[in-house]
Design a protein that fits this description.
The protein is an all-alpha fold and about 70 residues long. The protein has one domain. The chain has 3 helices and no strands. It is rod-shaped. Keywords: Membrane, Transmembrane, Transmembrane helix.
Length: about 70
C-alpha cells in the first residue's frame, strides 16, 4: 500500500473543494500529502523489516535442517 501512495498523486473530489478558497485547498492538500508520505514510508520500512526477518528465519531453519 505504501508504494502505491508514493507513486500516485493526491486528487481531491469536487465536493471536497466546495466552500474552500484556492489557498486553503492547496495548504490542506500539502498537509495531507506530507502525512500520507510519512506513513507510506513507515509502512515500507515495516514491510522491509518483516521480509528481512522472515528471510532470516527461513534461512536459519533450512541451515538447521540440513545439518
Amino acid at each position: 500500500m505504501g508504494i502505491y501512495i508514493l507513486c500516485t498523486r493526491l486528487r481531491p473530489t469536487p465536493e471536497w473543494e466546495a466552500g474552500k478558497t484556492r489557498n486553503e485547498c492547496s495548504r490542506l492538500m500539502m498537509e495531507m500529502r506530507e502525512g500520507e508520505v510519512k506513513w507510506a514510508r513507515r509502512c515500507l520500512g515495516a514491510l522491509s523489516a518483516l521480509l528481512v526477518t522472515v528471510g532470516l528465519i527461513v534461512m536459519i531453519i533450512l541451515l538447521v535442517l540440513m545439518h
